Amino acid sequence: MNSAWSRTVEVPSHDGAVHHWRVIDRPGTSDADPVILCLHGNPTWSYLWSRFISELNPKYRVIAPDHLSMGYSDHVASRTYKERVADIADLLRALQIDQPIWIVAQDWGGAIGMGYAVAHPDHVLGMVLSNTGIAVPSGRRAPLLIKISAAFGLHRLITQYTSLFVRGTPFLPGRGLTREQRQQLSKPYRKVFQRRAVADFVADVPFSEKHTSARDLQTVADALPSLEIPVRLIWGSKDPVFNDDFAYDLLSRFKNAHLHRIADGGHLTVLESSVAPLVEQAISETVFVEDQLSGVTSEALWSRIGTAHDANQICISDAAANETVTDAEFASRVASFATQLHSRGVSMGDRVALLIPPGIDLIAAVYACWRIGAVTVIADRGLGLRGLGHAVRSARVQYVLGIRTGCLAAKLLRWAPWALMINVESLRSTDGSTMSSLVMPAPSDNSEAAVLFTSGATGPAKGVRYTHRQLCAQRDALQNTYNITRNDRFVAAFAPFALYGPALGITTGLADMDVTSPSTLTAAALNDACERITATMVFASPAALANVLKTASGSLAALASVATVMSAGAPVPIETLRQIYQLCPHAQLHTPYGMTEALPVADISLLQREQVGEGRGVCVGHVVMNADVIISSYDSQTVSAMDMGETGEVLVRAPWLSDGYDALWFTQSLARADGWHRTGDVGHLDDENNLWIEGRVVHVVHTSFGDVTPVPLEIATEAIPGVERAAAVSVGEPGVQQVVIVVEVTSGEDGPANSALAAAVRLAVAPQAIAAVFTTKKLPVDIRHNSKIDRTALGHKLTHILTGASR
Amino acid sequence: MKVAVTGAGSLLMSSIANALIQRGDEAVCIQRRPVENLDCQQELVDIRDADALRRATVGCDAVIHGAARVGIMGSSGDFRSVNVDGTDNVITAAQHNNISRMVFVSTPSVSHTGTSLVGALADRAVTGRSHSHYAETKARAEQLVLAANCSSLSTVALRPHLVWGPGDTQLVGRIIERASQGKLVMVGSGNALVDSTYIDNAADAHIAALDALHLSAPCAGKAYVIANGEPRTVNELMRGMCDAAGIAFAPKHVPLAIATRLGTAIERMWPLIRKSEPPLTRFVAEQLGTAHWFDPRPAQMDLAWSPSVTIDEGFQRLRNWCEAKK
């Protein structure tokens, strides 16, 4: 950082003296933008903000002081919380900062910042708070580490007479700091006298109500709900001191607060991670009014349960467990689950993790939760144990509803240490409850219904929030898109849709398979599931269908008579559909396009796909009824529809678009613009209004002659005889990237393609210039769908090879 | 326009002269020995002779300076007298004769550091390195030329990267010769992605630079890397040349680290034993073993030039030429 920004300021203090403050004062290039005041905590100093300042847009002026007696500011007599808040006012007055500011603060700096905001509400435009607190969250104890450090007899030893506290802080769990960062942090605290204020700060943490600062902190805490300003919380969730509990405590205190949780971040997240983009987003964010649609009330998700004309109609047939329930039986199970859950205290808005294997109990539990207004947290077991744990932990569930092993895992692995465990077996009772006899109030349309976690291509899974209205809209969209009537019966071999049978009011069949591993579905198992309910529809993932084709033999009469086959979850090769058509000659074969955040967005049948023919990318058909799609530039934050035929990012709007991401405010800010969801897919709309997908935004190749999308090149390459699959990837830096094609040939080996194949590929993709053609036995694909190619990883590998580094 | 072209004995410079003549400009070719198939005034002058050079360039409007001592054979003094002092003579002659434009034919080796370049820009020429007299003296010459850029004389330096094509004895000739003797050596994996320049494109670029040069032109006083902008692996380039000549491509592989050391050793020892150019130098080893491709946009934007012959078309033309020669 530029040392010229560091200066000493003479500050006339409220205590009558004049103190010298060491301040980093980075001038901004624009006067129109707010000044940012950065407040560090204990035991750090303004160096804490070095990374933030170096990465922050130069237009902002930043002021980062060392608190008095800390860092390189004057050492003064011991100061209390209240005095420190007054000190900040003194400093700003001395600096003649009259215009309103943004406060960015961490640890004790957060408490001081909040104190300042409460005392000067008109002088603060907003706050970004990181790993801090104003009071111990209710029902929780004070952080153990601070308590030990403050304990009588140990306090001065840990915090002042030794450097344990100063040197230990950077080693708290998190993403970790570099050696240089750790050394810089402890630089002003090498001598015992320099650490006096460090000890004083710890001593100022009130553990009893009699403490001088207890009342002052409480006064500020009580005043927080009256603040109108936007507050954004950036939280390192590994912090053992200010853990997630503190984040949610603050979240509940402010009118306008959002949380962005960094799952692997620690106490010093502002130094560990790049937080400047988040702060810039917070400052520039126009207040996004969540689309609270009112008016027509949706038909509740559970309203069709127990309403079949024939009470003996099969509701769910589970071939795996060999269990079948009628409509009446299912209704009574949902009702008794709801009654039991309610009586055990599960109430409106509580989050419930469902650790129940797919089956009738899981579906009943989901509807029971929805009925009583509890929020279902559903994590796919395909995420693996780690992913599951991350999901349950990040959703902060109040209850874990599961089979014994599920509850045990949640307890042992501390996924939800504060949650109550409920064994789903214990909910079963014959209390005679019926859906109509349930007396507890039902949730409103705009209340949260579910948090879904699905595997991301990279990084931990994101929780996607849905309200009741959105889930109802999704049910209606499925019903409209696939013309589902109450006479339909469907076999669901596709996890999320299996839940929708009761909401649609149709019979559901579950095939004997491991739902988390779609390729375990055999043709015989699918046929058997269809036979049990004389299915009219089959929903399955492409991987499941591929295995059905592989295992198809003998008579598959039940399968042959279905009228609709729908395959979702990943792109479906047209050849797979053609072969499925041989098995189901009476069926319409549909492939919806969508994502966890919004499904369906578009739909296309096999017939339409054959008619459309070839084009730039994969045709996913027409946008479904009540959904909107526009193509907008992926280079720009602002949304504006591009012309027909132009390639850009696919943006979606629909009543069933999810509410947003859970505890990921920043991710959500980037993904949502003016009510549109940025899908991260690139594509275009053709003159017939068909949507074509050309790849992912992150996989676009930025060459010096313009941007190139991968999918059209891959399709052209895959038309070459002998080529199974191809990936178009980039090497080099954006702006001067080159396109390299990697061809999967089962008989081939990893290395440069022979000249005949290279020539064939270049001919196929002409006029696009291709720097090199490589072959591989197996392209890197995701385990779940066996279809999403990790082009980024492949590009890194090829960049390495093509620098001449290895063979 | 009357254009002085120095060093027309080389393929690139004679191609430039021919292209100038073809479009109706007048060319004055300045080199030590007469050149065949060059339909223009030829002045047989050594650029070390400042007076003769001044006389030869009287009445010219522009100069494209490509005369240079190349290779590794010779003392630093030999290289300096031609490449640095000779260039200084050209600049002086230009200033004396009121020539307003000067295009200097430089080389990417002036900023070569031995590491791979991936989509790089034309970095500043580096001087003060001893291991190659050629790169060192060309770098100093380029600095002289760019420093001479002023209101009366606009200058630009082009660094054509790996020029090849029909009639090229340096790259194509050597590869085909070695391959036909079964002595072709591949440094490293042969997977290094390198950009190259088809000869016609290289000639066009220099003429485009000449046209773009005027007072306060964006290119004045700057250096540009010239290349096709179509990097290929070294394997593919060499194979393409061998295929064009109808010779089997079966190189012997030498690891990059060994080739670099071998090249360094040969560079030191060779002049003591032989008079011809050595088969391998450290520079060649590094060039073949590491990626070299550049950002083509600065040259294309500032010089209003873009390559008209693609690499694959270039191979086809080379094939036609080889077949016609047989």
UniProtKB/TrEMBL annotation, chain A:
InterPro entries, per the entry: AB_hydrolase_1, AB_hydrolase_fold, AMP-dep_synth/lig_dom, ANL_N_sf
Gene3D superfamilies: alpha/beta hydrolase, N-terminal domain of ligase-like
Domain AMP-dependent synthetase/ligase: 313-661
Domain (AB hydrolase-1) ranges: 34-272
GO molecular function: CoA-ligase activity
Name of the protein this chain belongs to: Unannotated protein
TrEMBL record, chain B:
UniProt domain 3-beta hydroxysteroid dehydrogenase/isomerase: residue ranges: 5-247
Keyword annotations from UniProtKB, A to Z: Oxidoreductase
Gene Ontology biological process: steroid biosynthetic process
Pfam families in the record: 3Beta_HSD
Keyword Oxidoreductase set for record: yes
UniProt xrefs under Gene3D superfamilies: NAD(P)-binding Rossmann-like Domain (3.40.50.720)
Coiled coil spans: none
Family to which the UniProt record says this protein belongs: Belongs to the 3-beta-HSD family.
Name of this protein: Unannotated protein
